[in-house]
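Possible regression after last week's pipeline update?

I re-ran a chain I had predicted before the update to compare outputs. Posting the input and the new output here so someone can diff against the archived version. Not blocking, just want to make sure nothing changed silently.
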Amino acid sequence: MSTAKKFAGQTAIYGLSTIISRMIYFILTPIYARALPVGGNGIFTAMYSNAAIVNAVLAFGMETTYFRYLQKHENNKQQVYNNAFGLVIAVSIIFLLFCLLFLDNVIDFAKAGSVKDHADYAFYVENFLVILVADAFCVIPFAKIRADGRPMKFAFVKCTNIVFVVLLNLFFYTGYLLSLTINYQARNG
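New output (post-update):
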């Protein structure tokens, strides 16, 4: 029975940290909707619709594979971690380089003709690609923390990541509003 309680407790901690992150992003959505122009919101909608697919491709089930091989090779856990992490990094970097080399084609595919300003869209796509690759880099380290049975460390790292991302969002949001104000004052004197 203690194993079931331990599993339930860990699952609650893992799930709660994920739920909190999703709630915070949900709360930030109206802020973005008010701050960004309609075209910017359209770009983000298109990006997030593609992000779920790209995340799955970049991680390519390696988290599950990592857990499976940990069970098979209990005496060689560090090697399993190194192989899984190295493979995700290699695939992610190759993906990023490939996308940057063929950025115009990626932009044409992602925007589906909905945005006229190619330069703005390129900026969004480049940043989004870097974010997706950074997320992929985190998959195996988070899996390792879970495999080590350290739910509190997992929750702490996850929550720290959430706070960091929210602070960056607010920083860039404030910077964006400040730049709009400065541009408005410069034009209207």
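Follow-up from reviewer: compared with the archived run. The two ends are 72 Å apart (CA to CA). Marking as no regression found.
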